[in-house]
């Protein structure tokens, strides 16, 4: 049996599947460290999956939370069974496990998109955000503000994940290449904005008054906005720092 015809079954190295002989081969010496690891824990612990949180199984088992996903993912039932560790070997040996594994990862990503906008999911992401696991904004004047993963589309296969900075309100590509193949739909377009509505104390616009705007200068003199190389649309990066500024501005407008 050639090595290329054997595919390791997801996270469990104790079982392999042969597409040539159409049967299972159990490793007589399974790894004790991996015997009791769930598929979800395995998936989230892989290198490059630090952006993900572990979705609770009770959330996945509630079919209401999965409405419509059966139309978006091939081998939906088999992928769902793989995620919940309830696969039937008799069924699996008839399938291409590489395809089922891919479908399971896509399905988990779409479930993850829905989970992280729930109260529990937001709480888990807040714990990661507080530790800076998602990284910092590369913009110098954002003073190392923590960023959040986000998507520019809620549809799979459209765009990769990006990082949203709540200080400059802009999007950036992850600095490490290991994150650039993560689909943006696994986080969605709603998450980062709902996150700061839920946890306003984590919003740096209120906690870190560091919204500086870079001013180009030549020999110490500001470059005019009317210059072809001058600054453009500074107002896009401007925002009120507190309610007193808002009150004073409204009073001046009324006068």
TrEMBL record:
UniProt xrefs under Pfam families: CK_II_beta (PF01214)
Superkingdom to which the source organism belongs: Eukaryota
SMART domains: CK_II_beta
Example of a GO biological process term: regulation of transcription by RNA polymerase III
GO molecular function, one term: protein kinase regulator activity
A Gene Ontology term for the protein's cellular component: protein kinase CK2 complex
InterPro entries: Casein_kin_II_reg-sub_N, Casein_kinase_II_beta-like, Casein_kinase_II_reg-sub
Quaternary structure and partners: Tetramer of two alpha and two beta subunits.
Biological role: Regulatory subunit of casein kinase II/CK2. As part of the kinase complex regulates the basal catalytic activity of the alpha subunit a constitutively active serine/threonine-protein kinase that phosphorylates a large number of substrates containing acidic residues C-terminal to the phosphorylated serine or threonine.
Family from the record: Belongs to the casein kinase 2 subunit beta family.
Protein name, as recorded: Casein kinase II subunit beta
């Amino acid at each position: 049996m050639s090595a290329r015809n054997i595919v390791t079954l997801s996270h469990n190295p104790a079982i392999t599947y042969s597409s040539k002989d159409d049967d299972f081969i159990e490793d007589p010496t399974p790894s004790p460290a991996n015997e009791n690891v769930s598929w979800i824990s395995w998936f989230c612990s892989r290198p490059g999956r630090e952006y993900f949180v572990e979705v609770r199984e009770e959330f996945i088992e509630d079919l209401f939370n999965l409405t419509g996903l059966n139309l978006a993912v091939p081998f939906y039932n088999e992928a769902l069974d793989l995620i919940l560790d309830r696969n039937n070997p008799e069924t699996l040996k008839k399938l291409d496990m590489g395809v089922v594994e891919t479908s399971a990862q896509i399905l988990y990503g779409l479930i993850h998109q829905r989970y992280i906008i729930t109260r529990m999911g937001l709480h888990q992401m807040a714990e990661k955000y507080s530790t800076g696991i998602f990284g910092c904004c590369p913009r110098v004047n954002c003073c190392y503000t923590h960023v959040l993963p986000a998507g520019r589309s809620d549809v799979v296969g459209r765009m990769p994940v990006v990082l949203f900075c709540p200080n400059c309100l802009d999007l950036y590509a992850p600095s490490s290449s290991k994150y650039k193949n993560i689909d943006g739909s696994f986080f969605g377009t709603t998450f980062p904005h709902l996150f700061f509505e839920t946890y306003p104390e984590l919003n740096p616009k209120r906690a870190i008054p560091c919204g500086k705007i870079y001013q180009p200068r030549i020999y110490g003199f500001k470059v005019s906005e009317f210059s072809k190389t001058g600054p453009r649309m500074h107002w896009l990066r401007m925002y009120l720092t507190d309610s007193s500024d808002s009150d004073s501005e409204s009073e001046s407008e009324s006068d």
